Amino acid sequence: MKNEFNINIPETEKPRVIIVGGGFAGVNLVRKLKGKNVQVVLFDRYNYHTFQPLLYQVSTAGLEPDSVAGPLRKIIESIPDFHFRMIKVLGVDTKNNKLHTLVGDIEFDFLAIATGARMNYFGNEEIMKNAMPMKQLPHALDLRSYLFQQLEQATLKSNPDEVKQLLTFIVVGGGPTGVELAGALAELKRHVLPKDYPTLDLAQMRIILVEGMNSLLPQMSAKAGKITHKYLSKMGVDIRLGQLINNYDGNYVTFKDGHTLQAQTVIWAAGVKGNPLEGLPVESIYKGRIVTNEYNQVFKSDNEYFNNIFALGDVAMIRTKDLPEGYPMLAPVAIQQGRHAARNIVNAISNKNLKPFRYVNKGALATVGRNKAIGDLPGNIFIAGFVGWVIWLFVHLMYLIGFRNKLVVFTNWVWNYFSYDRGIRLIVRPYVKQNDPLTKELAEEYLEK
Amino acid sequence: MKNEFNINIPETEKPRVIIVGGGFAGVNLVRKLKGKNVQVVLFDRYNYHTFQPLLYQVSTAGLEPDSVAGPLRKIIESIPDFHFRMIKVLGVDTKNNKLHTLVGDIEFDFLAIATGARMNYFGNEEIMKNAMPMKQLPHALDLRSYLFQQLEQATLKSNPDEVKQLLTFIVVGGGPTGVELAGALAELKRHVLPKDYPTLDLAQMRIILVEGMNSLLPQMSAKAGKITHKYLSKMGVDIRLGQLINNYDGNYVTFKDGHTLQAQTVIWAAGVKGNPLEGLPVESIYKGRIVTNEYNQVFKSDNEYFNNIFALGDVAMIRTKDLPEGYPMLAPVAIQQGRHAARNIVNAISNKNLKPFRYVNKGALATVGRNKAIGDLPGNIFIAGFVGWVIWLFVHLMYLIGFRNKLVVFTNWVWNYFSYDRGIRLIVRPYVKQNDPLTKELAEEYLEK
User: Fold this and answer.
1) Do both B179 and B308 map to the same domain?
2) What is the domain-level CATH number for residue B317?
3) In chain A, N or C terminus with fewer CB closer than 10 Å?
4) Which residues of A touch B441 (CB under 8 A)?
5) C-alpha closest to that of A199 among A151, A260, A147
6) Which residues in chain A have their CB less than 8 angstroms from residue B195's CB?
């Protein structure tokens, strides 16, 4: 079967730039290559770009999944000799400048690896199997389904202990994703669920935010962590700092100190790791990420770097004396690296010197709910509350891909704000959790033709 | 496990009205029972109401799935003693006025069966297995995924015959669903795909509409069928009238006259059948629907009807001398019956006479694309073109449930109209078709945690 397929990219005189991954780095690189004399081939296993910072709003019924994703073909639309292929990339052959894919090989003149990150379960298979990730659109949809499945199941229980177990939501990780998700769950509990489930004892519903460090948002300023803590506590989130999780078997979370907590839903937002391509030299990988020089060229051996292979975004780590652990795995870094790499690739083609990448930190923002956000802006400026929230909204709308998405997200936000509603509390496809026979029965019912 | 569950509906003095099914009939019945002195329990296997007339726009990337569905709990929100349970109903015990559900039995004073319709494959299991249905939200999403999977796969084929097979879309059934879907596919082919797939030979893409009768929209006026035929032909739809399909094995459609057609995608819009509840007397069922008198009370035996069991909407057939085959299975009939049944149930409680149901035909509308719709209005008025299209838009927005949905759908329509775009061409969850290894591999890739 496989050999009937063909990558079908025309051979031209122009240098071929292959980009693996349509995330923030890949998409920004593609855009900046527009109008340059190159052939561009973009590979991704999805046919869309995901705006990951808003996935948590999909999970909590605030936004439609299709609003935070944009078709990748739209980005290359009408650019001559720009190609997209939705196909799995298996690895790279650095000696022959070839990429292996599920349907065959393709040669490149330049390669940009922008394969991003994946969930990090720190090697624990049981957690991987039983906890719910928050990285891709289907994950966000699964969580939305499961959240409302738990609520529907709870209405069918008379034993308060069982209700409590169904309605315990543990969010692991006090970074932006965990904090924003916990806040959104707390708002759902406060504004939406009492109307939807008047007979349910929502006092049994617990949102527990677990963080291993001793403050929330440990990557941001101490003040940001403190104010976030105050906001979330007030909203009813049970915050547990300095707590590490050893295991989750689907029913019980076991903490490092030995105590356990019963919960049906554990959301894993405790960290990500690089998702490098196969075929690179072992020495290119450090802590799961691809080591590069400050031109984003991939480390080869000793002091050598590949001239024509770049790594960008979360998967990449610029590792220099001043920067031994690279830049943080953040969307703004990926965006800036994507844009920067376009210039460097063009320079390389015309034998000009490459320019080193310098991350311009424009600050960090996180929101925990309506009128509540915190931000560390450049120049040690700290913002919080309503002002921060408006800036957060504005920045997220601005970076959202595509005008249609901006429009629909804005419409939903206005609606959510004034109605205190979350209109999208639908279980479109039930999430099937192991050892949960009712969800399985439900799912089979749904799949009926 | 099962016996730990409990339906948990409080016992009150008020008469209990149980409604099975949250479609057009069920939802309108619930709404009209608001403020009456009854306890209402609504059962559905989904937690949302689906606006089925717009599903085809979900399949063709014009609308977000969450825009054509509304949470059922929203409808009963804040009405005291109105309850929703998302649980499978197994059957009815008419002797003891009890309903069997997956988690136990519940007694009723009044029962309204509004379980709607399901796809009718006319007993052909192979068609059921291989063709794609268009009835529920997950079906519409599967079709959207598969449509774009086929296009993506086609870019990986160099053999024109294989491309042709991938890009052949056969819509079976020339009723409103088939006509609207074929039109939307034709618009996609014309306005969106050439930009997205510049290197693909879209001349190979065929949209074939098959109808067993000798005209399209056979339930509407002859003029409507003719103009629709003209519209669709002009848009490039290959219409085949008077053709019946015997089988579809996943690769080849076999027609009754023996000829075959190769196609990867066959969409089954050839008809629906009633979806009655188990436990009713055999004599209550006629042609798959539940026979009722003109008060919507279910037929028991001879000339007897159940006093307190009603059937409404698609699943029901009012069968009288003047109306031997009942009203057609249409949304407006269901809406009117739901509203009407509320009045009759209230009358029955207060021992007043019931009122016979009379369907007020407000006309029928169908659209085939931008500025193009046809309608048979009351008083033999026929409309077509732009005027019909504006009326179609207006009527569909009006009947769409929930203000948020109206707002988002309107926003998307305005966007689609002026941009000629369909922004939602995402393969969020790949559709796995049997004997199609690449889709399976894709799906596994997507499900990665």
Assistant:
1) no
2) 3.50.50.60
3) N
4) 88, 102
5) A151
6) 77-78
